[in-house]
Structure formats: structure tokens, C-alpha cells
Amino acid sequence: MVALGLASHGAVYGSGYDQARALLQGTPSGADMTFGGFKLLANVVSYWAGIPGGLFSPALAVGTGIGQNLTFLFPHLQPSTIMVLGMAGYLAGVTQTPLTASVISMELTNNQGMVLPILAVCLLARASSALVCKVPVYRAFADRILEQHAVEHAAQRSNQEPS
């Protein structure tokens, strides 16, 4: 995490909310074209290391950064449009909850003209994610908690049984 923090000039620390907002508003923020990639790596490293870091805000930030990286592919569209779609799609892919990701993204943008594009991107992202990861992230979290609880319960029972 320290190496990613140094390489990104500190952009990967925190939720990424300020950087994502600045990118969407087109204001300088210190989030350059490497922000999305570095933030993605930081999220993966923190998840694997068991470092609590949240899910929604970092996912929205990563998606915005990835959207920023893709803006050159769509020169006829506003960069903020591509970033919003990246934000929505990444959140839907990570959580595999396309309706939740769509509603959150639409609430954040307050742009009724983006409803269908956001919904389409979220549905595609969820379908793509399901091909790669069969178990949605919240299900994996729940399974991990239940497994930990079962181990703790078994340990308690073995300590209570007479020898």
C-alpha cells in the first residue's frame, strides 16, 4: 500500500471521493490518468490483506478513473458522461447488483437523460462480472463471516465440553 501511495502521490489513500468528484466536474485534483489503475490496485491489495476500506466509494472512484482513461475512445461524448458510465459499470461489476448501482449512479448524477445508458452499462457489467466471478462480493463477505462464526462456535463448544 505504501508503494502504491508513493507512486500515486497519495491519490490512492482514502475513499477517492474528492478525486472522483473533481474528475467529473473537470477541475484539477491531483488525479491524473493513472488514478483509476492505482486506485484499483490499492483496492485489490487492501481487500486481499483484509484492510477495511469500504466498497462503494472506492468502487465509484475506480470506475470514474477507468472512465477517464476511456474518454479518448469516445471523443464525440462529454468526458463526464464516460466517467459516469465507468463509475456505474464498475460498481455494478464489483457488487453484481446492477439495479443498486444504477440507482446510486442516477442519484449522484441527477440527470434523467442518463437513465437508460446507466442501466444498460450496469446490466452488461453484471453479466460480464458473473462470467469471471461466480460468487458476488456480498455473498463472499457473508460466507466468510458465517465460516468465521462457525469456527468460533465450534471452539466455544469444544472448550465447554468436559474432558
- First and last CA, distance: 46 Å
The overall pLDDT, averaged over residues, is: 86
Shape: globular
Largest sheet: none
* Helix content bin: over 70%
Secondary-structure content class: mainly alpha
Rg over C-alpha atoms, rounded to the nearest angstrom? 19 Å
Alpha plus pi helix count: 8
* Beta strand %: under 5%
Number of structural units classed as domains: 2
Order of helices and strands: HHHHHHHH
Give the beta-strand count.
Answer: 0
Uncertain regions spanning at least 5 consecutive residues? none
Structure description:
The termini are far apart. Helix 5 runs antiparallel to helix 6 (98-109), helix 5 packs across helix 7 and helix 6 runs antiparallel to helix 7. 71% of the residues lie in helices and 0% in strands. It is built from eight helices and no strands. The mean pLDDT is 86. The protein is an all-alpha fold. The chain has helices spanning 2-7, 17-25, 35-49, 56-70, 79-95, 98-109, 115-132, 137-160. It has two domains: 2-132, no CATH class; 135-163.
